[in-house]
Amino acid sequence: MRISPELREVMVEHLAACLPEEGCGLLAGRDGHCSMVFPVKNELHSPTTFRMDPQEQIWAFLQIEERGLELTAIFHSHPCGPQVPSSTDLAEFAYPGVIMMISVPMNGEWIFRAFKIIDRTYSEIALIWE
Fold it and tell me: What CATH number does residue 29 fall under?
């Protein structure tokens, strides 16, 4: 999956602003290349789980559709780790074919990893920042 450094910065700013809670949002684009990021409020305000604000999520879906894009990834943070999907992430994932990105703050930096989720299991995919 390809993401520009500018979009990465938008995600980092949103996730950092959400600390100590999990932050979340959506990425949209085409053919594995992300071209838009939609930060979404975590309505649970929790450091260990998230649920996207329904109104913000629907607005983002409408924007994606209006622009003729596809939902490419759902991103969220794990403020205290782990860097891989949790059992809750796997159980609640409801978007086949969409990538799950997880970001963890570590030593002043944000680590991003991306995963395909199939049948409550995950496999990591490459992230290309360009």
Answer: 3.40.140.10
